[in-house]
Amino acid sequence: MPQSGIQVKLDRSGKVTIFSGASDIGQGTNSLPAYLISEEIGCDPRDCTVVVSDTDLTPVDLGAYSSRGTFMVGLACVEAGQRLWAMLAQAVAEKWGCSPAQVDAALGTFTGPGETMSFREAVCLAEAKFGTLGATGSYRTQKLGGDYRGGTIGASPAYSFTAHVAEVSVEPKTGLWKVEKLWAAHDCGKAINPTLVEGQIEGSVYMGYAEAAMEEMTYLPSGLHRGPSLLDYRIPTSLDTPDIQALIVESNDPNGPFGAKEAGEGPLHPAIPAIANALYDAVGVRLTELPFHPWKLLQGIQARQASPQTHVDPSPVPVPRADERS
Q1: Is residue 213 part of a domain?
Q2: What's the pLDDT score for residue 104?
Q3: Which of 101, 129, 197, 231 is spaced 20 to 30 A from 295 at the CA atom?
Q4: pLDDT tens, 126-172?
Q5: Calpha distance 188→250 (Å, rounded)
Q6: Is residue 310 assigned to a domain?
Q7: Cβ-based neighbours of 304, under 8 Å, separated by 6 or more
Q8: CA 157, 259, 40, 108 torsion: positive or negative?
Q9: How far apart are CA 244 and CA 246, in angstroms?
Q10: What is the Cα–Cα distance from 36 to 30, expressed in whole angstroms?
């Protein structure tokens, strides 16, 4: 069954209504259908209304996970848009006496051999020819997974690539360290909305930095979490967050919508080893257990000073209780 579905309704007023079950948690799936449908059928994206995440109205979408939003929702949009375009182009071509292949449209204006027409007029022609206009599109995962439970989710048909550089400063006497700047270059295929892509990269890099700097799950002997709320669970504030430079590297993925692929999770992972490598380059201590607390780094520095020729990896080490930490 489809993992993601899209329904599109055209109105003779020239307005477009798009129904999507995808949940937008920052990745842009509330606006993505308007971009892609308008690109396929030639309307102005400002004439699109996207109805989202209403299970009474929208088709099924399996959720915001596994970097699937732009890829799967986008391909469903492309399929629905192509079906509508076939009807619109045929109706307009008959009016102009040309081939459908000679009809083009963008931002609400249809063009052909010496002819122009508004999107609204084209919709009226197509509705008169075909009846009430609507189309659906869906994405079905290719058979790439196994026959085990969860295998039907399917392996991703597209993979992104990321390279990070971290600049850190270290105070060897205390083990205190600070990330001065992080550069993240991410191959996201085609950046359909560059502003959203930059935001996704920056958010992911922030999460990776936070895991390296302070986020951790520690428990009392009773099994209760030491930080059961966001008041107790430490995350970096805007004052703690280093300068992050997001660099979009565009390519053309042959399987993605207009060549696009993920930019939501991939940029998280390299931030951690980039910071670890920078710390090692600075003081020669290799940390392999998160978070990179200053006391861990200080232990490694002291051990290295005691045995300069020895490769130092102080992790894993017993985690002191919160009330024992200075």
Answers
A1: yes
A2: 97
A3: 231
A4: 999 999 999 999 998 776 666 776 665 555 678 889 999 999 999 99
A5: 6
A6: no
A7: 283, 284, 285, 310, 312
A8: positive
A9: 6
A10: 12
